[in-house]
Amino acid sequence: xxxxxxxxxxxxxxxxxxxxxxxxxxxxxxxxxxxxxxxxxxxxxxxxxxxxxxxxxxxxxxxxxxxxxxxxxxxxxxxxxxxxxxxxxxxxxxxxxxxxxxxxxxxxxxxxxxxxxxxxxxxxxxxxxxxxxxxxxxxxxxxxxxxxxxxxxxxxxxxxxxxxxxxxxxxxxxxxxxxxxxxxxxxxxxxxxxxxxxxxxxxxxxxxxxxxxxxxxxxxxxxxxxxxxxxxxxxxxxxxxxxxxxxxxxxxxxxxxxxxxxxxxxxxxxxxxxxxxxxxxxxxxxxxxxxxxxxxxxxxxxxxxxxxxxxxxxxxxxxxxxxxx
Length: 325
Prior knowledge:
The protein is an all-alpha fold. 60% of the residues lie in helices and 2% in strands.
């Protein structure tokens, strides 16, 4: 299969797997493969995962497998989730990807992919790292919700503007935007419901919603139990690309006490927004003490580059840059 008129999956995969290539170029290759939605891309992703040292790239490899709608990726993700030698950021992304893929799996050949994935998710719900345990809890909640939801409920939740596989569905109904904020604030609401409120606010996309999301980001800045929640807000801001979110994102990036998973997402969100203000701010963190943040800045700055690189023409996608067809 061709990913463009002149570029094949294997040629792009070779760039991804080549550790001598600049990280930003490998990211471009990864998102090119992601957007093929082709199982032939998976061997290249696996090869890269097996030898890669960059936590940022490994976590992005898992993310892309969760977005490609290929249940064949399930056996590649389970060992990552179960491997306690992997960084928690990578294990988190593998768990979230499994939550996206299990509901799509229609495997009847006896491989029991979904059953194995569910067992792995359930086993890691008690992991000592909150990033991993919370991710697995959310994934299992999503799987149960989708299996019980009616066709009408699922159709009502589709959002044409955002086509990503999200870790939870948005709220099916709510009284007001203020009620969504109450869900985010209340200590009584589950993380699953808080996530659903986040995605409802994203889908509405108003200035009021941006402010609610931003306040939620800062309200939890010193709560390490909410690192995963904060990283999701950063991700959502990256999808919304609203310049009004810049001030909220900057305050997380410049706060070193925040977990690097949250700072990384806020960096990438600023790269997606790509205003001159955001770009100049990111340049201050090129030498950040956190390698994940430094590499995120490198990739985020590359997301704002619309020039030709060798034989490829690039443009931004949901979380990266791909080869134009």
